Amino acid sequence: MLMVEDVDLTPNPQALKFILNEKLLQVETRQFSNKEEAQKDPLAKGIFEIDGVASVFYMDKFVTIEKKKDTGWGQVQKPFINFLKTFDRNLIPEEKNVQSPNEHAGELMIKVNEILDQRVRPALAGDGGGLQVLGVDGFKVKIRYQGACGSCPTAISGTLMAIENLLKRDINPAIEVVSA
């Protein structure tokens, strides 16, 4: 039975990270910004049935729920815990055979993902979020924040600059990082 082992605050006051007793995914991350996007994922769809849920992100052993600003956590937390108790983990859609970015990416994309995997993604996951590289055009790296990071003011400004500075220092001073 899926159970919440711990709840972590995130830098985003509208998001909580729920740490579970079992892994949900081995490799993928899944981000749903609204109920419509979640229709083919029974876990996310069920979470969106809870009043006040604004977005759902899950990977590994945690689910990050962002609530609507006018919703209290009490309206979300208990229904989510109850939902998990009855949810069949086997309903989670099978993970796709995720291609490594190394298989079809240029050298810059490979280096960017290596640095993000080592230095940035673990910290973001610790805060209930993630980061997806959408593409590289010249020296412009386009990223999308996931989970708690998606609407967090810190991610949108400070973290974006920190990522850009890291990539400039470790790869090329001409790199520019933009958020999608």
CATH level-two architecture of the largest domain? 2-Layer Sandwich
Please give the number of β-strands.
8
- Using only C-alpha atoms, the radius of gyration works out to 17 Å
**Major sheet details:** 5 strands, antiparallel
Helix content: 25-40%
Would you tell me the overall average pLDDT?
91
Instruction: Return the CATH class of the largest domain.
Output: Alpha Beta
CATH homology-level superfamily of the largest domain: Scaffold protein Nfu/NifU, N-terminal domain
The proportion of residues in beta strands is: 25-35%
Instruction: Give the CA-based shape.
Output: globular
Count structural domains. 2
Figure out the total of helices: 5
> First CA to last CA: what distance?
37 Å
Helices and strands: which structural class? alpha+beta
Contiguous uncertain segments of 5+ residues: none
By CATH, the topology of the largest domain is Ribosomal Protein S8, Chain: A, domain 1
Which H/E pattern describes the elements?
EEEHEEHHHEEHE
With strands numbered from the N-terminus, the spatial order across the biggest sheet is 1-2-5-4-3
